[in-house]
Amino acid sequence: MHTNLKAVLVGLAAWMLSAVAFASGHDYDKVANRIVNQSLAVRPGEIVLIIGNPTEIELMGALQVAVAKAGGESMLQLSIPTADKRAVMEMPMEYLKQIPTGQLTMLRMVDAVINVASIEDPDLFADVPEERLAATRQAAARLGAAFRNASTRNVTLGQTGGIPTEAYAKSIGANPKEITEMFWKAVSVEPDELAMSARKYASMLQAGAKARLKSKAGTDLTFNIDDMSPRINAGRVADVGADRGAMSVWLPAGEAYTCLDGATANGTVVVPQTMFRGKEIKNLKVTYRNGKMTGMSADSNEKMLKDYFAASDEQTTQLSAMSIGLNRVSRPLSGSNYRSWEMGGMVTVAIGNNAFAGGENSGDGAFFLHLTDATLEVGKAKVVSDGVLARVR
User: Fold this and answer.
1) With a threshold of 0.85, does the pTM exceed it?
2) Poorest-confidence range of 151-160, 233-242, 243-252, 344-353?
3) How far is CA 187 from CA 197, 234, 235, 236, 339, in A?
């Protein structure tokens, strides 16, 4: 869960990504078959939108073939990241603020969406003036509202950082071969295994319960879980458990997640390292009091993040969702900043738009904080202890 509004919606973040699939020789037909027939269960006559970039043509082609073999019809949407940046930089502000009616129309036409996401140029948008990016986010807010109420089934291949690329691995201090091998192994974990585990942990995220989140880095935050039912990401939309709106999964899968009552947040979240538009933010501290973000500090690139929140609406600053990572294969890599939703024992808190979780926060932006070595208590139950998942029956 990832944009990445999970970077907010399937399809919205595609224009901000630049891709090269760093998986030479990988069996894309096998990947496409799994996505189309297992993750989405495409049926004859359905329309499937496939979103990607020029360097993902091979994977998009494999997906098109798999959809056709399932009896579906493909529509391909190609994003050219460098052109997307030029457009944002050169368009008159009045046009940047226009509602993306084409995307709205597309969303209403299709039954399912497949987004293959990778990052080849991690800081491509880092030098774009914040007011321009804010204008595009605000214009896209209508698309977020439509997504929340859509009946589409969606799958994104790639969580934090998308499908690993050499450029992305370098930006986070990871070994390209190590991150790539772990990624594809984590993708291959069977949905049945993940669903069984995810349902158990989702049952611990009880509606209305008070939760406390702590970490060795200094996090100490309390909040209440919302009254909505928790959801799971086991890699199949059939397992999501959504009672309304779109059903989305992200690969690698392995999550139990829920919406939070933002107004009840009190305390501080501390993250030693995180990334924002390809730039490292060290020792980030975000403070809440009665649901209001009252403070933010960091040892590097603090201004960039503060400018982002200052240019966004109030809902974008509110605590909104939480995810528990359950994938036994995926893990933080030593010496790198690689952190992702599905990693076993990872606790992720979302700030801002939570449409991906079926929530009511319609902020024009979102930001996600991944906590390692965290301890999470919900009610009287300890769900995670120092980054290790509690044993549940």
Assistant:
1) yes
2) 243-252
3) 16, 10, 9, 12, 16
Angle at 287 between CA 316 and CA 233, to 5 degrees: 55
Dihedral sign, CA of 166, 168, 171, 172? Answer: negative
Sequence length of the chain is: 393
CB 172 within 8 A of CB 161: yes
User: Using an 8 Å Cβ cutoff, are 268 and 285 in contact?
Assistant: yes
Separation CA 152–CA 129 (nearest Å): 33
SS3 24: coil
Q: Which of 323, 374, 359, 379 lies closest to 211, judged by CA?
A: 379
All structural domains of the chain: 13-389 (3.40.1830.10)
Q: Read out DSSP for 44-97?
A: TT-EEEEEE-GGGHHHHHHHHHHHHHTT-EEEEEE--HHHHHHHHHHS-HHHHT
The residues near 315 (Cβ < 8 Å, ≥ 6 apart) are 352, 353, 361, 362, 363, 364
